[in-house]
Amino acid sequence: MISRDELLKNPIEDITLNDLEKYKDITDIFNKIYGFSSENIVNGSRILKEMIKTADLRFLSFTANLVSTGLRGLFADLIEKGYFNVIVTTGGTVDHDLARSFGGKYYKGSFELDDAMLKDLEIHRLGNILVPFESYGKIIEDVVRKFLPEIIKDKREIGVYELLWEFGKRINDPHSILRKAYEKKVPIIVPGIVDGSFGTNLFIQSQFLNFRINLFEDMRLIKDLIFSCKKSGALIIGGGISKHHTIWWNQFKDGLDYAVYVTTAQEYDGSLSGAKPREAISWNKIRPNAQHVTIYGDATVIVPILAASLLS
User: NCBIfam families in the record, alphabetically (predicted)?
Assistant: First the structure.
């Protein structure tokens, strides 16, 4: 049997845009290859560059599993450098960012490990990433219990994006998504905030502190941003609620002007996660004349390539 110490040897490290500087011309290589997925990467890079130059509202939408990887630092850097000014994500993003910001260590593992063994060793598995019990739930619980009373001491109600800024304000980690969003005043919209450890702990504490989260405040904010923008674009990584919330609100301005999807989901089963941009056109969520592309592949491979290309 493998020991716990043997499994928890190699921690996950966050990357930044600085790490990608020497790869900034990588799409030139894909443009020469120009086969199959290479074309989509080239087009995705081109669309993102134009979006960043011309769209005043720029969404970064992603799923929480990616925040357990080194992409966490890259997302934080993309916020800090001003490439995106609205984040739409899921409850687990807050969980992983808080856990890792307050001392939790995640480790390199394998998809093939015995999960019954991992449970006995008190290790969670997220794909091929290992999360020791002590690096997750207890940390989030302690952080919420420590900071929430002072955050809501003069309030009985608070918008989720404001609450996340308050937690970000109390983080001292340069790779934290919440911290960078607070510093740049980039709203993090989490429509499914109660689906995770952070949301559950908010609920528990609400029983003692007599406060409520107000999701309508987040809806008001995203509505105001949509109605006041001239052009909008989105890099949408993965599917589910974060993808849908992003394109849903853009229908009220007749759709996104730019859309880059990075996904492994397929459209044959009719799922929202697998739906291509062309389907969103029929719902008024993406403009018929919008620039859009779908890039199929693992985000931990595709996103660093796209991010590096922005540096050029």
Answer: PRK01221.1
> How far, rounded to the nearest angstrom, does the alpha carbon of residue 50 sit from its chain's CA centroid?
21
| Phi, psi (rounded to 5 degrees) for 242 | -70, -40
Q: Are strands 86-88 and 188-189 parallel, antiparallel or unpaired?
A: parallel
pLDDT of residue 182: 98
CA distance 304 to 43: 15
Q: Could you give the CA distance from residue 1 to residue 146 in angstroms, rounded to a whole number?
A: 38
Its pTM surpasses 0.85: yes
Tell me which amino acid residue 247 is.
I
293/34 Cα distance (integer angstroms)? 15
Which pair of tokens denotes residue 221?
């904010």
Tell me the two tokens of residue 48.
Answer: 């993102």
CB 124 within 8 A of CB 130: yes
56/110 Cα distance (integer angstroms): 41
Where is 58: in which H helix or E strand? strand 57-62
Q: Give per-residue pLDDT as tens, 183-232.
A: 999 999 999 999 999 999 999 999 999 999 999 999 999 999 999 999 99
Could you confirm whether 105 is annotated as catalytic?
A: no
